[in-house]
Amino acid sequence: MNAPVGTHKQIVVFVDKQKLTLEDRDYTPRELLQLAGEDPAETTLVLKEGNELEKLTDLDKAFRPKEGAHFVVYHNSPTPVS
Predict the structure, then answer these.
(1) What CATH number corresponds to the domain at position 69?
(2) How many domains does the chain have?
(3) 43 part of a folded domain
(4) β partners of residue 72
(5) What domain range includes position 25?
(6) Across the strands, what pairs with 15?
(7) Are strands 18-23 and 43-49 parallel, antiparallel or unpaired?
C-alpha cells in the first residue's frame, strides 16, 4: 500500500556546499557525514548558524536538521604544512 502523498516531507540541507535532499526526520551526525561521503571516524560535523559554529561531537545523538541548514566538515587529522 502506498503512503498518502505528502507524508514523506523532504528538506534540503548543505554539507560543505553539497546539497542533500533528506526526509524530514531525526538524523545523527554519523548519518549525515556518511550521506555526504565523509568518514565519521576522521571527521566532525559542524552546524553553521550565522557566524556561530557548533561542533556535533556526539556522533550518535539524533537531532532534526532544519530546512536549509548549513554544515561544514572538519577533518580531525592534522593538515600537513608545505
Answers:
(1) 3.10.20.30
(2) 1
(3) yes
(4) 46
(5) 10-75
(6) 18, 71
(7) unpaired
